[in-house]
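Lab notebook: predicted structure, single chain.

Context: the supervisor wants predicted structures on file for every construct in the current expression panel, including those that have not yet been purified. This is the next one on the list. No modifications to the sequence; it matches the entry in the shared construct table.
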Amino acid sequence: MRKAIEKYGMIKPNELVSVGVSGGKDSMALLHSLNLYKRFSPVPFDLQAITVNLGFDGMDFTPVETYCRENGIPYISKETNIKKIVFDLKNEKSPCGLCSNLRRGALHNAALETGSRTVALGHHGDDAVETVFMSLLFEGRFNCFSPVTYLDRKGINLIRPFIYVREKEIIFNEKLKQLPIVKSTCPNDGFSKREEIKQLIRGMEKTYPDLPERVLHALENKDQTNLWF
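Prediction complete. Output recorded below exactly as produced.
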C-alpha cells in the first residue's frame, strides 16, 4: 500500500482523506491500514470514514461506527434511498450499474460536504484484473480503472491504495480477520457479472497460476499498454 501511495502521489500534505466504507472486508482493511500508515507517513494527512447506506434491510453499521470511535476516526453515515430507486421504482433487471453510479455520487457529495477532495476506495489488484476481463468480454475493449483518477466535474481525486494488494493477502491476514464486517443483504450480492468473471479467472488460474500477476504487470507498464493512463 505504501508503495502505491508514494509511487502515484496519492496523498498530498494535510489532506483530509475520505475512505468509502461499505462494511465489507476490502474497505475495512483499507481504513485500518491507512489509519496505521498515518502514524509514520512522510506526508501528514487526516482521515475519515464515510458509509453510504443504500437502504437494504438487515444491514447494521453499528460495529463499523464503534470501530471508528475506538480508533479515533471520524465516521459519517450517509442515508439514501438508492435501494428503493434501483429495485422498487425502476425495477432494474441489471441493477449493479445504476446502483454503483448512485452510490459513487452520494459518496463524493458526502466527502465534499466535509471539505474532503480525496476519496480512497478499497479496490485491490484482483479487482483490476476482473475489470480488464469485464471490459474485454462485455464491452469489446481493453479498459481498467486508474490508481488515481481525477474527477474534474467534482474536483475530487479517487485513489486506490490497494492496487498492488492481492485479495488473498486481505482474506488470510490474521489481524484483518479481527475487523468488524457488515454482510451485504443486497439480493444481487454474489450473482453479479463481476462474480461471473471472478469465477472465470479462478478457473483460468488452475492452468495459468501467474495470470493475475501478468495482467497487473501489463497494466503497470504504460509503455506497452494504455489502460491506466
